[in-house]
Write a structure and sequence with these properties.
The chain has about 180 residues and is α+β, with helices and mostly antiparallel strands. It folds into two domains: about 55 residues, no CATH class; about 110 residues, no CATH class. It is about 35% helix and about 30% strand. The protein is built from seven helices and eight strands, in the order ααααββαβααβββββ. Strands 1-2-6-5-4-3-8-7 form an eight-stranded antiparallel β-sheet. A hairpin with a 2-residue loop joins strand 7 and strand 8. Helix 2 crosses helix 3.
Length: about 180
C-alpha cells in the first residue's frame, strides 16, 4: 500500500526519531535524513519499498482522522529473556515518551458468556475471556497516543485517538485499562 503522507509526518505520528526510522527502514541515519528531505519526490517504486519495509497501513485515508498502523518483524531471540526484550524494544523505539502497561480483556459479551457456561468447559471459557498473554502498552507524547503490542515475532504499532486522562478504552473487540506507568533506564 503506498504511503499517502510524507515520512516526516509519519515519523512524528508514530512518535519516532530519525535514528529509529533509519533502523526501521534498514538505512543509516544520513541516508534516512536525505530520503525524508526529498520525500515529496519519492518514486512509486521507492514508495512501495518503504511501505513494504514498514508494513505501514493508513486507514480512513479520505477522512481527516486517518489512523496509521505498523507491523514490524522483530527477532526476540537476540535478547536474554522475553521481559528484557520488551523493555529493550520500548527503549529503542520510545525513549522520550510516557509508557503505560495495559491490561487487555475481550470486550464483555453477556450472551456469549452465558452460552459458554453451558456449552464449553468452564476453564476454556475463562481463558477465552482473558484475551492474549502478550503485553500491550500505551505510548503517550503530547497529544499522540499509540497502542503497542509485542509478540515473539512482531511489533504492532497502532495510532489511536484518546484523551490524555482516559484510563480505559476499547479497541478491536478488547477493553484496555492503564495499569502502571513504566520507567525504562
Amino acid at each position: 500500500m503506498p504511503i499517502e503522507e510524507n515520512l516526516k509526518n509519519i515519523k512524528k505520528r508514530l512518535l519516532l526519531n530519525d535514528k529509529t526510522m533509519s533502523k526501521l527502514l534498514n538505512l543509516n541515519e544520513k541516508e534516512y535524513i536525505a530520503l525524508e528531505k526529498n520525500s515529496s519526490n519519492i518514486t512509486e517504486s521507492q514508495n512501495s519499498k518503504i511501505s513494504e519495509i514498514l508494513k505501514i497501513e493508513i486507514l480512513n485515508k479520505k477522512s481527516n482522522s486517518s489512523r496509521i498502523t505498523v507491523r514490524k518483524k522483530i527477532d526476540i531471540q537476540k535478547y536474554q529473556n522475553t521481559f528484557k526484550a520488551y523493555s529493550e524494544i520500548l527503549k529503542l523505539y520510545y525513549p522520550q515518551c510516557q509508557i503505560f502497561v495495559l491490561t487487555k480483556i475481550k470486550k464483555h459479551n453477556p450472551i456469549n458468556s452465558f452460552l459458554n457456561l453451558f456449552f464449553k468447559n468452564s476453564k476454556t471459557a475463562i481463558i477465552n475471556e482473558m484475551g492474549t498473554f502478550y503485553p500491550s502498552y500505551l505510548i503517550q507524547k503530547d497529544n499522540h497516543h499509540l497502542l503497542v503490542n509485542i509478540t515473539n515475532t512482531h511489533l504492532h504499532i497502532i495510532e489511536i485517538q484518546l484523551g490524555n486522562n482516559e484510563k480505559i478504552f476499547l479497541y478491536g473487540g478488547y477493553q484496555y485499562r492503564k495499569a502502571n506507568e513504566i520507567y525504562l533506564k
